[in-house]
Amino acid sequence: MNRHVNFKDNIFILLMRIKVIKDIITLDADPEIFQDKVLDDIDFIDQTLIVLMDYLQGNDRLISREGFLKYQAEAESRFERLMGDFLRHEGNFSIREIPAVKEKLLALQNSSIERQKIIDHLGKDIHPETDSPVVSSDELAELLKAF
Q1: What's the pLDDT band for 74 if we cut at 50, 70, 90?
Q2: Torsion, CA 22, CA 94, CA 108, CA 4, rounded to 10
């Protein structure tokens, strides 16, 4: 992805799609009508999160990277919770009777959790904890000699 990515808008769209899916499974929507579309949307969200994650990992010099990591973390968190909601739901949209779908959603939930760990690690790389000053007093004196 060598082009400009409108990260905030992409994440916003994903968050809205997550909300729509959550509403569909919370309401008593007919699974015969919506199930295939919901599962396609879940796949789309997961694949898009992977693409955005790859972009963040491959571009460690982005000006707004820290903010983008926070947006990505929020989207991952909501996606992971959606998978949990979907797996626990007992209404019309229960997937308990479909073992293959249940396994897939568990795998997607686990993948999201792993991406969240990567985001946490990347965030620590931006602000590494250090006990020593970045520039010693001798180095600072040497740098200020010219002034």
Answers
A1: very high
A2: -30
Lookup result for tokens 């820290």:
66
Q: What is the DSSP letter of 129?
A: -
Distances (CA, A) of 43 to 21, 134, 136: 12, 44, 51
Domain ranges of the chain: 7-144
| Of 121 and 134, the one with more pLDDT | 121
Tokens of 56: 């963040």
What is the mean pLDDT of the segment spanning 58-67?
Answer: 83
Tell me, what's the pLDDT at 99? 84
Closest CA to 65 of 124, 107, 17: 124
112 neighbors 44 (Cβ within 8 angstroms): no
Instruction: Look at residue 1 in the predicted model and tell me its pLDDT.
Output: 46
Distance CA 145, CA 52 (A): 45
In angstroms, the CA 91 to CA 19 distance is: 17
